[in-house]
Amino acid sequence: MATPDPKTRTIQLAHGGGGRLTAELIDTVILPALGGAPSSGGLTDAATLKMDGARMAFTTDTYVVQPLEFPGGDIGKLSICGTVNDLAVCGATPRAISLGLVIREGMEIAELRRLLESAGRTARRTGAAVVTGDTKVLGRTALEGLVINTAGVGEIMPGAELGFDRIQAGDRIVLSGALGEHGLAVMSRRENLSFSSTLQSDCAPLHELTAALIDKLGGAVRFMRDPTRGGLAATLVEIAEATARDLQIDEAAIPVNPAALVAAEVLGLDLLTVANEGKLVAIVAPEAADEAVAILATHDIARRAADIGAVDDVVEHPLVELATKAGGRRIIQMPYGEQLPRIC
Amino acid sequence: MATPDPKTRTIQLAHGGGGRLTAELIDTVILPALGGAPSSGGLTDAATLKMDGARMAFTTDTYVVQPLEFPGGDIGKLSICGTVNDLAVCGATPRAISLGLVIREGMEIAELRRLLESAGRTARRTGAAVVTGDTKVLGRTALEGLVINTAGVGEIMPGAELGFDRIQAGDRIVLSGALGEHGLAVMSRRENLSFSSTLQSDCAPLHELTAALIDKLGGAVRFMRDPTRGGLAATLVEIAEATARDLQIDEAAIPVNPAALVAAEVLGLDLLTVANEGKLVAIVAPEAADEAVAILATHDIARRAADIGAVDDVVEHPLVELATKAGGRRIIQMPYGEQLPRIC
To answer: pLDDT for B93-130, tens place per residue?
Structure first.
């Protein structure tokens, strides 16, 4: 009899990477154990609730980034942006945030204060108050660093009609800016790489971008997502699989940050798979694509917004295909596991 | 110049104990850093939101209990009960729960599945679906055990009118059962104490108790709280301080579990300060007290419900006073810090 592969019976770092292995763990262990798929058809990043007539979005994320402070942000700012963005891409206006701390014994209170001040500043920018919280402390040997969980509640905008099922052939794929800056800034700082001085995390709240798109384009906005863990690759493969449609993207159209390109090369990473924390992918009706790019580009964090490709027909084996600058074609795959642990 | 006391500049285990030191950290560091008190006047266990006309409660808690499984429960069941109970004591019907996992690399997937099945079973009993989640994995040296954060959203019952400001002189203090079973069951298991075989955690959802009270007694229910970390002592001192009223409780009236009494004695603990995870404190109008006790006692988890004391007048220095069985009087204080780390 074969001994079970330890990889199939114990948790690997890659199970937390936001790629194929995370999806497998969720589908084969977490969802069945919790009692089957919820009504929305999956344990989504943000769930939609109807309560007493109000259309609400509800989401959670836990942040374990190391180091706690990195160029362009820190775990406090990140913990607010991440949850605000999960609400925003559901077409919701962020209203209230909960913040649960797990602190390591011995942490400097001055450092904790600094990180929470950063969270508070970010929350105020988004108009969402931190209204409830919880504090736990673990012993020095039990936890390395700091864990922050945030959950968020938002009110879905009246004009928002978003969903995988609204995506149609011919729809355009709009990206709000250059890729990979968050993951690479954190990794560069951790590895003390020299380009860390020029590379900044893109960590930012996206609620103004999403509100502007819905406000001005209404139902022409079909779907939105922020490409965090697993990067643009994971987001596009997820869309292709959920809609059973091919996606075509154009490498030449994807905005690139030269410092990120260098860092990715040094670290041996594909920019398409590296995490972003301040970027938006929007699927929009073809006639609205130019206006969507123009609306995004009026915001500082999305000046380089671009139309990077299109949604195609329903097929049996949906693929994400990249037309390379060199004139070739490459199939984009869901990253398997964790390339950069503890980046968010 | 004096060197600052390291206790005042670094985090201690006691900062996470739910007592005086936790309150100080919240008031002097966390709330000011996050940007001042939210509108409700504090970072409460559950916040009340109004969205599009709906009256909602929103809460979060992080669970770090060790061991992960203990007599009467496990971290999965606990993570649902704790959040459901925070909603229930606000008079809310639990509707949706988020679940954020931080898993240690190398954890047996079978164990994770068992704990999540327990969470799922408990959630189904409460009618609140787990609708959204997040999964992170930390390396073997970065985390000991498992961290589960849950946040919850509930709909406030139409008849619920609860708040510190509704508490009046003469109101009765009703307790749903015997004290300290959760904290002592966990601690006994951890220390391999012999009485662990008879002592079970009281971990249970309280939503049926709270709904029955509000349904039948309406505005005669002034305030509810589940006495978790810091035990009954912390809950009563908090009520005394928030209302500026003396509270009088009667030791002879407080239900006691003999096994818990023995365990507390062996561990050198005061039962009044040990955590419960399935007990309710309700402040009710005097004329409703007997009925409140009768309503609670129809539920298996509250068969020993009792009227244990009364709320008194507004005073300058509010105190919680215990009339002892021996005929003496003892002032009950807020526990300072952590007596039993990682019990929830």
So the answer is: 999 999 999 999 999 999 999 999 999 999 999 999 99
Do A226 and A202 fall into the same domain?
A: yes
Is residue B284 domain-shared with residue B151, that is, in the same domain?
A: no
User: Which chain B residues are within 8 Å of A55, Cβ to Cβ?
Assistant: 52
A111, A140, A156: which is the final residue of a domain?
A: A156
Q: Give B240 to chain A, closest Cα distance, Å.
A: 21
Domain count, chain A: 2
Other beta carbons within 10 angstroms of residue A58's beta carbon come to: 28
Burial call A303-320: b when 16+ CB within 10 Å, e when fewer: ebbbbbbbbbeeeeebbb
Pair (A133, A228) in one structural domain: no
Residues A220 and A327 in one domain: yes
What's the confidence (pLDDT) of residue B178? 98
Question: Which of the listed residues B139, B156, B173 is the one where a domain comes to its end?
Answer: B156
Look at residue B36 and tell me if it is in a domain.
no
Query: Which residues in A lie closer than 8 A to residue B112 (C-beta atoms)?
Result: 11, 29, 33
pTM attached to this predicted model: 0.94
Cα gap B298→B263, rounded to integer Å: 28
The whole domain housing B89 covers 44-156
Same domain, B205 and B269: yes
- The pLDDT mean for chain A works out to 92
Q: Which residue has the higher pLDDT, A162 or B336?
A: A162
The verdict on B139 and B63 lying in the same domain is: yes
SS3 content of chain A, % helix, strand, coil (to 5): 40, 25, 35
Residue B93 within any structural domain of the chain: yes
B299 and B188, same structural domain? yes
CA distance B318 to B310: 13
Q: Tell me which DSSP letter residue A218 carries.
A: G
- The amino acid that residue A12 corresponds to is Q
Pairing relation of β-strands B46-51 and A329-332? unpaired
* Model confidence at B52: pLDDT above 90: no
The Cα–Cα gap between B139 and A143 comes to: 10
Residue A343, by phi and psi: left (phi above 0), alpha (psi -120 to 50) or beta?
alpha
Report helix angle A258-267 to A181-190, nearest 10: 60
Closest approach of B179 to chain A, Cα-based (Å): 22
Q: What is the CATH number of the domain that holds A286?
A: 3.90.650.10
Inform me whether the pLDDT recorded for A39 exceeds 60: no
Q: Tokens at residue A215, please?
A: 């406000």
Q: Which residue of B has its CA nearest to A229?
A: B136
Q: What's B89's domain CATH number?
A: 3.30.1330.10
* pLDDT of residue B39 exceeding 50: no
Structure tokens at B167: 């508490």
